[in-house]
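Predict structure. Chain length: 225.
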Amino acid sequence: MRNNQSEQNKRRSLKKNDAFTTLWAVAAVVSFFLLPLGLPLLIVCAARELTTMRRKNEVPLRFGLLSIAISLWMILFIGMASADADGIGKEGFMMLAPAYLQGIGFGLIASVLAGALNARDRRIDRCLYLIKTEHITALSLLADGSGLTEKQVVRALRTAIRLDELRDAQVDERLGEVVFEKSCWARQRAVCSSCGAELVVNFGQTLVCEYCGSALRPENRRRGA
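Prediction complete.
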């Protein structure tokens, strides 16, 4: 039953990705010929990109580079034609070449967007690695380990939570650490913040004391000084 559900989810995801790829293709074609008409589609695509991790979708970079390559080729072709004695001449070049600048404009926008999101998601991956593998939750230590500032760490983690890359967690800037509602590690020692009971929690277990209902704090997490 679970396998069937998993297969259905995969099919839905593939259909969504195919539809989104088609939307990027339409945006690229429309922008290539008339950029102002393509801008609303580009905005829709950009908004969709903000809700996914770049490692799952490289479509905008591909279409952006393709649009730039085709535009440059067409400008070069027109330039060669204008240089030919029987070609379109300089006036023809000045008339036709600017039209292909729209494709370059679209390509630059799409490429810059892809680059910015790649940088964002590299920051997220650095923080997630330190949390999930090294068991670090202190914001100061995450900043030191990732080479980011604490503000960048906070932004990256909040984005990860919004994108469902880090579940059942919140960033507590007052405490200076990431606080979890459920354990994201296996077999973790934890101490109740209220009654002092010592418990062992497993992956996915709610971090609530079974005796008094207060919050549990795993003992073997690395915290700042």
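Summary: The radius of gyration is 25 Å.
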